[in-house]
Amino acid sequence: MKFKYVIVGAGLAGLTVAERIANVMDEKVLVIERRGHIGGNVYDSYNEDNILIHNYGPHIFHTNDREVYLYLSQFTKWNDFWHRVLTYVDGNLIPMPITVETINRLYNLNLNCFEMKQFLEEKAVDVGEVKTSRDVAISKVGRDIYEKIFETYTKKQWGVDPAELDTSVISRIPIRFNRDTRYFADKYQGMPAHGYTRMCENMIKNRNIKIMLNTDYKDIIDDLEYDTLIYTGPADEFYNYKHGRLAYRSIKFEFETLDREEYQEAPVVNYPNDYDYTRITEFKKLTGQDHKKTTICKEYPCSEGEPYYPFPTKDCKAQFALYEEEMKKETKVIFLGRLAEYRYYNMDGVVRRALDVFNML
Ligand code: FAD
Ligand code: UDP
After folding, report:
1. What phi and psi, each to the nearest 5 degrees, are found at residue 312?
2. Do 228 and 135 fall into the same domain?
3. Is the CB–ligand 2 distance for residue 169 below 6 Å?
4. Is 87 in the pocket of ligand 2 (CB under 6 A)?
């Protein structure tokens, strides 16, 4: 069979490029997906109690990239939503990320914004050059807050000490010298009004797009003719692990539906120091769904399983660089997305990159 474009992976990266090829170029495109559904990790679905859940953990859309926001807005309306997270420390639920409220609740103080800045400056440790995620935290908030909020959460999430992780991990969490307790400060934030899967279905409503589910591309690729392959699966797998297996972090999601209307005070509650899970999500608080019952999800990070997060250490990056050298030699293959580029992309980052890749086709 002959297709000009073949895409491996029906996640946001693959679907964005497929949508552009089909609608803008009016070309036929084949998308091959190993799982039994489209959407990759943004896939959501109604469970047996008819509650909308995010099957691969809580997904909140947020971006400062107007073009990405407008692009996705063609396929969904958005519910207004400002994400809020509480973290359970010393028996109290306090707001994350760190704001004036967080510090006041943590230390039973009544500081204003200016005093909070001074307070943290006094706690901050001079680490010299900031080289790791541990350095990021203690150079901004000092050892005590680091231990209460970041250290054990990060050990649970990644299975290693924050001193082993590069700066990008804990840098994702801002420190705010104000009372803005929203988890993200981006200009555009929201939840797709009918869910991510519906948004993805709308992206591929074009006869030019053919999707093959439950299919590993390796099983059929030799029978296909194509000019360009856009690959969004794991980089190491593409090369049969010739430079060894790249580390990806996985998560075991444990869902539970409770016979009560509400479970917790916020859509997500983090548990840095207690229990084996990192956080609990209550989906109705993300989606705004009305229902007599409620579904929650506990996240247990692990090293085996579906690859979700590229592992942000120096050694892993160096190993990935070996694969990158191989990629540069490819003439018919473009590598795109969280797994193929081994980058901790958010949804907006992956769509941005997919639009850029399309513009280069
Ligand atoms: P994926 O979604 O991983 O898609 C790749 C697809 O390729 C998969 O469906 C896979 O099955 C398929 N595939 C792989 N190998 C093969 C093969 N051999 N043959 C065929 N198909 C194959 N981002 C946000 O912006 N906000 C959030 O709140 C947020 N929360 C997150 C929470 C969690 C727990 C996780 C894991 C991620 C979160 N993200 C969030 C990130 C978001 O999920 C990613 O940015 C996005 O899904 C990446 O899309 P992708 O297409 O690159 O990868
Ligand atoms: N983190 C932490 N404590 C928290 C929340 C986050 O130590 O309460 C650290 C942890 O290392 C995590 C990183 O900050 O991996 C990024 O957090 P984010 O919420 O962005 O993680 P994601 O949603 O990508 O899992």
Report:
1. -85, 70
2. no
3. yes
4. yes
